[in-house]
Amino acid sequence: MTSSDKTPPLTEWLHEWQQSGNDRLDDRLLEVLYDELRRVAVQRLAHESQAAITPTELVHETWLRLKPPNTPIVDRNSFLRIASVAMRHLLVDQARERLSQKRYGVMQTLTVSLAENGAQQRALDDTQLLDLDRALDALASGHPRVAEAVVLRAFAGLDLHELAGALCISLATAKRDLAFGRAWLAATLREPT
């Protein structure tokens, strides 16, 4: 039996964790996945102005929302997809909370990038982040894979190769999905003139 015939231990642990909710396994998984989740969180928050949450807090809050997820976890890529959605919801919930408190003064912003190379980042204030969240929900109703690609790019900071691997699609399809998603969101979020 070759190593390619065996399921990687991480995948086995993810399956067992999801089925049993084993706390001991929960700790082991967090230890193994922490660095990767923190990398995603640091990347996600790198350009945030007056960050309301640190990367460490984002990882821990995300982890709490993943215990154990209802969505089937097939492998590391599916776990990252689930984690990116949890990060999105956490950041959106924080924006809603800040807006409900109607605080004035320093505007909280979150930088979002959908570009292939990470360029063309755009800072979004809380209201714009909520508008983006609603637009992503609308996009997902008609084009779920495109919406998932946009979430993985914008909220998990995955590059095109990682994105294609996470969604099990070709690099060309990932590029097309992001291009379509950018155009769809631009048209949907275009401010009235």
From TrEMBL:
<feature type="domain" description="RNA polymerase sigma-70 ECF-like HTH">
    <location>
        <begin position="11"/>
        <end position="190"/>
    </location>
</feature>
<dbReference type="InterPro" id="IPR011517">
    <property type="entry name" value="RNA_pol_sigma70_ECF-like"/>
</dbReference>
<dbReference type="InterPro" id="IPR013324">
    <property type="entry name" value="RNA_pol_sigma_r3/r4-like"/>
</dbReference>
<dbReference type="InterPro" id="IPR053812">
    <property type="entry name" value="HTH_Sigma70_ECF-like"/>
</dbReference>
<protein>
    <submittedName>
        <fullName>RNA polymerase sigma factor, TIGR02999 family</fullName>
    </submittedName>
</protein>
<dbReference type="Pfam" id="PF07638">
    <property type="entry name" value="Sigma70_ECF"/>
</dbReference>
<dbReference type="InterPro" id="IPR036388">
    <property type="entry name" value="WH-like_DNA-bd_sf"/>
</dbReference>
